Amino acid sequence: MSSYNLDEVKEMAGGDEEFMTVIVQTFLEEIPPDVEAMNEAIGNDNPSLAYQYAHKMKPNLQMFGLNLMDQILIIEAWSKQGKRKDEVPEASQKITTKVNAAVVELKEDFGL
Fold first, then answer.
1. Residue 5, Ramachandran bin (φ over 0: left; ψ between -120 and 50: alpha; else beta)
2. CA 82/CA 75 separation, integer angstroms
3. 55 exposed, middle or buried (CB, 10 Å; 0-12, 13-18, 19+)?
4. pLDDT, averaged in runs of 10, over the chain (112 residues)
5. How many other CB atoms are there within 10 angstroms of residue 2's CB atom?
């Protein structure tokens, strides 16, 4: 069972394998550093910076079928209304774990 789903990526690429690989490479280059920066912002109790990274990753996490919207919403709620702060560490951990698993699998599956 894969930790990601490429249905949306395939649809966007319209069957163009090369374009799909480019989308995957972009995900691999951009998302792990964003996750790291988001976690750093959370660690530094900087909700607005954490929000920026969480929000920026949202479309990619969705496109790769990672089902992390609930976790992103927790981080957004913390930064926007100061709510759900107690849930933020668990949410960021789940995002980190799922993204890391997807990165490993994508690299394997695409030979990158």
1. beta
2. 9
3. middle
4. 91 93 97 98 96 96 96 94 92 97 96 92
5. 11
